[in-house]
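assembly run, all chains below
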Amino acid sequence: MTASVRGVRDEDLAVPLAAAIDGDAEAFAVLWRSLHPLVLRYLRVVCGDAAEDVASETWLQVSRDLGRFDGTATAFRIWLFRIARHRGIDENRKAWRRHEEPHEAVDQLRVMVATRDAATEVLELDDTERALRLIAGLPRDQAEAVMLRVVAGLDVAGTARVLGKRPGAVRIAAMRGLRKLAAHPEVQAGRPVGYVNGGRGGSNELPSQRERAHSADERRAG
Amino acid sequence: MRRRHERPEDRLDDLLSAAAAPGRRHELRGEEEAVAGFRQEYRPRNAPARRPRRKRRLLAVMAAAVVAVGVGGTAFAASTGRLPAPVQTWFDSHTSSDSSPTSNMSAPQLPRVSPSPSLSPSPSLRPSRTPVESCRTWNSRDNKPVTEELRRELSRLAGDEASIDSYCHRVLGTASTSSSTPPPRPSTSTGAPPIGARTGGNQGENDNSGGDSDGG
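ok done. output:
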């Protein structure tokens, strides 16, 4: 796979990981800055809007147990995403129970979701958001496999450990997911995913803000 | 990053690169909370192995504190006559008589051992006589026979039975007049605080070595 995580390499994490295991909060901050965005993106696929809360819980559990962690940076990455996944699934169960109860609430929820999706269409147009949205649209097992392989930067064995599956199943799920993405009309149409974010010399934040403002103007005009 | 997307593979590649792009600012919110959480939740794997010295020192301090409180509680109980007779006797014979509750001189010494009512011996222990009470009983015996227990106790305090009268004279004289000169004691004449401090120190060291073997 040509696409892999840029900027977060295990060899860069080894030193801060060792220090954080010894209780160094600064080193923990380095780990957090490197991996939190990836955890967040993965959790958006697993548990949607609860991703931020679940990510916070994930890091709290990491904080509690890191002193007993004994492994490489790769193992840490696997451990981290396993915790995130379990927390996310727990959150889904809780949310499911909450939704099951009153019928009115479910209807309200549908309205809320519809509204939010419309807002998302308009406001979150940067490349990363668009890519994540496409991946999240895949069947769940494929989406998770792609996210862990591509975004979390795990190899097939590591992804298999996070998902609790056999490596063969992971390989197949990831392959199907990627094939589906490649066949997606948006990708097929050659709609330039790299368009907004393509200016790699500029800041990551400004283009998307500009884009948002632009879209809002368009909406007002139309 | 490529600007042109000639082939579908390239487009997919860009899509995946975008998904794995470095964290945006809004994705890096919450670092302070996360680090604060780490500071609060982090527990070292095995504290004794990693920080033996600190734990040992902590154990020593805790042991010393326990002993100090214990001695303090004992001193408090003894000075209020709440110890069992043998302990009270030991206490009285190892402290100057001015530590008895009827003596005004004992008052300033008590706060130093920080007595706590909850730390004194349990209420089930029978209140015992102070030397002053014993001597009062002894002097007011008149013709009635004195209990063997009282005789033994006072004999021990005075050194021998023949010295009981003079001992009680000194004790009662001091207690009743609140004299500033403590009565001479035949056997031991150390004051309460040094005893407490010394005992606490010794036992603290003993407990400390116990802590070492536990911790190491």
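The radius of gyration of chain A is 19 Å.

Chain A is about 75% helix and 0% strand.

not gonna interpret more than that til we talk
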